[in-house]
Structure prediction request, 605 residues.
Amino acid sequence: MNVIDSDNLARDCREKPESTFSHPALEVRDCVKRFKGFGRNEFVIAADSINLTITAGTIVALVGSNGSGKSTLMSMIAGSQLPDSGRIIVAGEDVTEQPSWQRTGKVALVRQNPEHNVFSALTIVENFALAEAGQARRFNLKRAAGPRVRDLARDTLAQFSMGLEDRLDQLAGTLSGGQRQAVSVAMATSRNPALLLLDEHVSALDPTRARVVMEQTEAIVRQRSIATLMVTHDMGHALKHSDRLILMHRGRIAMDLASKEKAGMGVPDLLARFEKLTGETLPDSAVLARA
Amino acid sequence: MSILLIGAQVGLIYGPLALGIYFALNILSLPDLTLEGSFGIGGASTAVALVAGLDPATALLLGILGGAIAGLITGLLHVYLRMNVLLAGILMTTAAWSISLAIMGAGNISLLSQATIFTWIEGLGFSGQWAAIIVGALASGLVALVLIWFLHTNYGLSMRASGLNIQTARSFGIRTEARQIVGLIIANGLAAASGALVVQSQGFMDVSIQTGVIVVGLAALMIGMSVFKTPKIIPSILGVLLGILVYRVVVTIALKLGLPPYFVKLVTALVVFGIIAVRANGLGLIAIPGTKAAKKNARERLEYLENDRVVNIT
Prediction:
């Protein structure tokens, strides 16, 4: 497995034009989302006046127990759920009322379930063609898997060293879960979105594959300096692969650690702070992830 | 041989309908029953156009247009009234019965004195049977080629994506509701094309031709999907066309064996039942109780029952 070397990454970051950094990649302002509860007139507050700003080029890890509002926040940013009130601004543009399909050029999302990121019934190159056409929002009557898209797909897949570049015409359903997630990250980042959302994108993989895909994801994201909001239940990943760590609890941001504050912090320290802050323990998976 | 020819003669003009059903059910994953009504509207429109003195090709196009409009309405009902496609289709097909009668102004129209596409071809020196086979093959072949081309374009690909997973498609930047509406227009236009061809071929239009016709296409689709089990487009489309031939041959054989014509619909239903049963159960269905195959089948049936879901369309 090739992991892109970090000196090149740093240089690439510096070479980015200054204008890219003029707006924060993401601003969430006072976002509230309530769901109907089980009882009559009973509401569950999934997002309780969330404020969050992510500067361009940073990787932010988002952790929290089940029902803390992580997924709701991600859905509101991606556009599959609309906030009851508040604004969502991506790279300076207010997208609050935009349907998800209009946000594609700005926001890219990789979901937990590999089945939801890649169309199994389409070939690998057809998946790339869709991602390409979607980015340009040009769904025309030209042949989808033409030479240009094939070259793009081949180059993009070659960087994973999984041999996928020779399997362009196979159905994406023949890929393993890890391969699919790798392809999804490649497709999502090839669009150079202002913001990349990773919704537990390695949690359905076995630990070894999860580590590999996570490392490759970070390498690509850093190389292209794409601002990233990454939900994970793995505290190790959250500490290791991020510039900033946010903890959500009951629809609010309960803890926000900048790079310096989380430096030197281990998983046990993080878990201890979580317990102290919320009076709850994280699910077992987070604890097991230490091993 | 003669059985094969009769199968091709009667079957090929149902090719566009079968491909329309493939398009709605398989590509778009929309169980649209409007197709049945569109078949009738297509027949009614073409009959009225022929009686009005229009040439057969224009009459065919008007028939297609009638079906396309029905598909557009179903699409709008689904997207803007948030109506389940199955329910919208049932209502549209019911309405289509009255609309067909309104277009015709009578219960049936005879076209014996009018020129049709089929009499054109017969004029070139072909027998009635070969004229039907040629027109059916041209229509089915043309529709198949255009669909194969279309579904490999960027737009066609976005339509396939919309039928696979709406959330994923939308995250790829695809406005799925637009694809559904356009797709229903195409599928219903194709069904209407078959309706128009059938009317021109038999030389009269009766409003009852639409009744149960969707099952013919469904039989072709099920046979075709069982031949090539792949989501790829080219084998699927060839399979559907092959399916319509196989289905017609089965019906022809059944009739030759002395089955009364009113049993055709029963035979059709039995063919579809049979194929689905084999597809879902394999040989497990007829396995001797207690054998490995029977146990496997029982386990699979239990899994199916455990995962069964209700779909409320109201």
Remarks:
- Residues 1-20 of chain A have pLDDT under 50 and may be disordered.
- The longest helix of chain A spans residues 207-224.
- Chain A has two domains: 20-115+194-204+227-288, 119-174.
